């Protein structure tokens, strides 16, 4: 009954099927691109009677220093997911404007737009998973925000920087280009952060959920020039950063926190190479080179393999790409268990 009171858009909406909602049971969890490292933090629970600052200065300065931008170019949000929503809410008129994105890619661009009542233009990636710039150019009417994910989830590849520059040139004075860099800490040299100097309509999404091992914290950042950040500040909630989030983020972004993150990234990148090499030796299995803490793997029978691992307590993520399964990079033991199971499965 109450569902009928909801907006039509909301009635029709299928919520994002997160790994957490899908569930599963077992002891190897490689389905949500989470970090296997459960790091320790100190919490000081005083001053909880007071509201927090909307954009805590120390935390913003620390992330700005890490990202190589100025504090005025940083906005913190409840995960990168809130950044996606703010960008759509701030730049797209419901019913008139559209977003554009290029599947297979992250699911939240479509869901946020749908929730807000903003049209979605879909221009699939080319077979090599790079941008189809011609088709994007033909579909830019009414588009106010273009989302590009690099490294892309779930394919794992980097989007060509040259293509991103062409896209930025095509969209100047027309649309905001959002580069989702949720996994960039695993390959920091591939960031497009240097392009902020040239393009005022570029926004970059970052998060502490992946390489910083803080998915449960819900802390993300949007990087952009001050004028764009100011627009987002108009639509953000007044107190988006809970006090414990501020405290933990500051520790994660301290010198020792950053050193630990970089060490863990090296470890995970080595585990990814291990999985890649091991799976690549199994006849019929195709590996795609990945740049985040996950990889896409094509099996002769992806659905059956996904189910077999699931039934044996190894929880992976099925993907919309035929016969492909996305495997998060866990600790060495989890990777070994997974590799051993898959090797035996195909024997
Ligand atoms: C995980 C992920 C996010 C969301 O990150 P949160 O900060 O946890 O909201 C955004 N984009 C991509 C591509 C992701 O994989």
Automatic annotation (TrEMBL):
Domain Aminotransferase class I/classII large intervals: 33-340
Catalytic activity: L-histidinol phosphate + 2-oxoglutarate = 3-(imidazol-4-yl)-2-oxopropyl phosphate + L-glutamate
Enzyme Commission code: 2.6.1.9
Keyword field: Amino-acid biosynthesis, Aminotransferase, Histidine biosynthesis, Pyridoxal phosphate, Transferase
Pfam families: Aminotran_1_2 (PF00155)
GO molecular function, one term: histidinol-phosphate transaminase activity
Keyword NADP in annotation: no
GO biological process, one term: L-histidine biosynthetic process
N6-(pyridoxal phosphate)lysine carried by residues: 210
Associated pathway: Amino-acid biosynthesis; L-histidine biosynthesis; L-histidine from 5-phospho-alpha-D-ribose 1-diphosphate: step 7/9
Presence of keyword Cytoplasm: no
Cofactor: pyridoxal 5'-phosphate
PROSITE patterns: AA_TRANSFER_CLASS_2
Assigned protein family: Belongs to the class-II pyridoxal-phosphate-dependent aminotransferase family. Histidinol-phosphate aminotransferase subfamily.
HAMAP family cross-referenced by the UniProt entry: HisC_aminotrans_2
Quaternary assembly: Homodimer.
Official protein name in the record: Histidinol-phosphate aminotransferase
């Amino acid at each position: 009954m109450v569902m009928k009171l909801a907006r039509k858009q909301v009635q029709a909406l299928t919520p994002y099927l997160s790994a957490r909602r899908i569930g599963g049971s077992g002891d190897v969890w490689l389905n949500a691109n989470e970090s296997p490292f459960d790091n320790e933090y100190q919490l000081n629970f005083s001053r909880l009677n007071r509201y927090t600052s909307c954009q805590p200065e120390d935390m913003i300065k620390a992330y700005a220093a890490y990202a190589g931008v100025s504090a005025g170019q940083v906005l913190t949000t409840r995960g990168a997911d809130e950044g996606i929503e703010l960008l759509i809410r701030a730049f797209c008129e419901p019913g008139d404007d559209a977003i554009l994105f290029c599947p297979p890619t992250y699911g939240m661009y479509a869901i946020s737009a749908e929730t807000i009542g903003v049209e979605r233009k879909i221009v699939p990636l080319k077979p090599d998973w790079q941008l189809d710039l011609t088709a994007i150019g033909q579909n830019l009417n009414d588009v106010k925000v273009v989302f590009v994910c690099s490294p892309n989830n779930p394919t794992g590849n980097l989007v060509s920087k040259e293509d991103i520059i062409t896209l930025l040139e095509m969209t100047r004075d027309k649309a905001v280009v959002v580069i989702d860099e949720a996994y960039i800490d695993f390959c920091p040299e591939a960031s497009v952060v240097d392009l902020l100097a040239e393009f005022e309509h570029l926004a970059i999404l970052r998060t502490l959920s992946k390489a910083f091992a803080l998915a449960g914290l819900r802390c993300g950042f949007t990087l952009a020039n001050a004028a764009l950040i100011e627009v987002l500040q108009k639509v953000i909630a007044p107190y988006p950063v809970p006090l414990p989030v501020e405290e933990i983020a500051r520790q994660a972004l301290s010198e020792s926190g950053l050193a630990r993150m970089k060490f863990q990234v090296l470890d995970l990148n080595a585990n990814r190479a291990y999985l890649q090499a091991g799976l690549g030796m199994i006849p019929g299995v195709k590996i795609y080179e990945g740049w985040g803490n996950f990889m896409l793997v094509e099996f002769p029978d992806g659905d059956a393999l996904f189910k077999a691992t699931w039934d044996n307590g190894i929880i992976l993520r099925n993907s919309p790409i035929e016969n492909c399964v996305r495997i998060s990079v866990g600790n060495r033991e989890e990777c070994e268990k997974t590799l051993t199971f898959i090797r035996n499965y195909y024997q």
